[in-house]
Amino acid sequence: MKLWFPYKQMKNMEVLLSVKNAQGAVLHMENGTALIDGISSWWAVIHGYNHPDINAALISQINQVSHVMLGGLSHQPAAQLADTLVRITPQGLNHVFFSDSGSIGVEVALKMALQYFKNEGYTGKTIIVSLKNGYHGDTFKAMEVSDDSDFTNAFDDVLHRGYFVNIPTGGYNATDTEIETAVVEVEALFKQDAATIACFILEPVIQCAGGMNIYSPLYLQHVRRLCDEYNILLIFDEVATGFGRTGKLFAAEHAGISPDIMIMGKAMTAGYIGHAATLASTKVFNSFLGDTYEKALMHGPTFMGNPLACTVALQSIKIIEEQNYLAKIANIEHVISEQFKTIQSDFIQEKRVLGAIGVIEMKDAQSLAGFNKFCQEEGVWLRPIGNILYLMPPYIISDKQLLTLLKVIKDWIDKLA
Ligand SMILES: *Cc1c(COP(=O)(O)O)cnc(C)c1O
């Protein structure tokens, strides 16, 4: 096979269905079948496929200019998107650096944090703290701050890992004791190593690719306080959680706090074109000011701020704001929660729901062997990660389509024995 697929053992690979076109929440295959998409093409396609308003905005921008370098030139779509992102994100994130994917957005965030301390005259503040079971992308520094897993195993010998701490147990509504246990671990680490720790990067409220683990936003308030106390920068990776997925526009809002640096990607461009943004506080931005290049951020992806990507993002945010998407997301949360009550089995470890995310953690990955094929036969597209079966549908999904997805999940689980 000439085409090399991601996260795939290519030996004896099965023939994959090929998508011909897509409309709304439905993928249409070359073979004439159709699948309801339950996972928004890696969580990005929030408005569904082939959205008329986004298509129109994109075509109009293509007829103006499709791409121009942001090195030495500027353009309206990038400037407007920067303004808009500053407006809609938590207070204090006032500066926007664009890049072409979530992983690169993470690299930029880590560069900002590490160079911040260098620019401020510190030596030795070079270590990064992250959460166990986190996932921050597939490039090298992003792998280093992601927990070891199938994603990183092949590179264990070359990764220089920092420190990893546990998320609090107990889910969204954890008890004070559960939160306290996790906070004590962070505080002990900071107390001991503040001189060498530069930053703490985490996925706020839910860790996605690392197992769809939901944790208390109150933990984030404590982490914010400890980062301030020990002069450590706090980085939120909202590549998966941003743009409404958790029921708030950004997951940081659950905690009512602002990180020093925040990354967004995936849903930012609604699944049309890969792009990401790394936002920084004025404190971080100002440390890069100086009379020479020495203090400047020497990073610049070729396609950063691509006008088509920025146009899609602007149109997407306009739709989210004008069409009351948070209500749509609340409805998805309600439908999933109600239907999950009817799905019961000894094979289930735990069911979790947050915003437009529904998770069924099975006790054993074996319970999901053949599930993806079953879904295709039943006309839906779902793709578990190990023992984690999850739904992250496009926000425009109809109740009927959502109920079909949930029925297929229930049918599969009911026939396990
Ligand atoms: C997907 C993801 C990334 C990586 O984004 P890419 O666009 O695939 O490089 C980083 N962080 C989180 C939380 C993600 O979910």
Chart the SSEs and their pairings.
Layout: E1 19-23, E2 26-29, E3 34-37, H1 40-43, H2 52-62, H3 76-88, E4 93-99, H4 102-119, E5 127-131, H5 140-144, E6 163-165, H6 176-193, E7 197-202, E8 206-207, E9 213-214, H7 217-229, E10 233-237, H8 252-255, E11 261-264, E12 276-281, H9 282-287, H10 307-322, H11 325-341, E13 348-354, E14 357-362, H12 371-377, E15 380-381, E16 388-391, H13 399-414
Parallel strand pairs: 3-15, 5-6, 5-7, 7-10, 10-11
Antiparallel strand pairs: 1-2, 2-3, 4-12, 8-9, 11-12, 13-14, 14-16
The chain binds pyridoxal-5'-phosphate (PLP).
Cofactor: pyridoxal 5'-phosphate
Subunit structure: Homodimer.
GO molecular function, one term: 2 iron, 2 sulfur cluster binding
Which key features would you list for this structure?
single chain; about 425 residues; alpha/beta; Aspartate Aminotransferase, domain 1; Aspartate Aminotransferase, domain 2; 2 domains; 7-stranded mixed β-sheet; 4-stranded mixed β-sheet; 13 helices; globular; binds pyridoxal-5'-phosphate
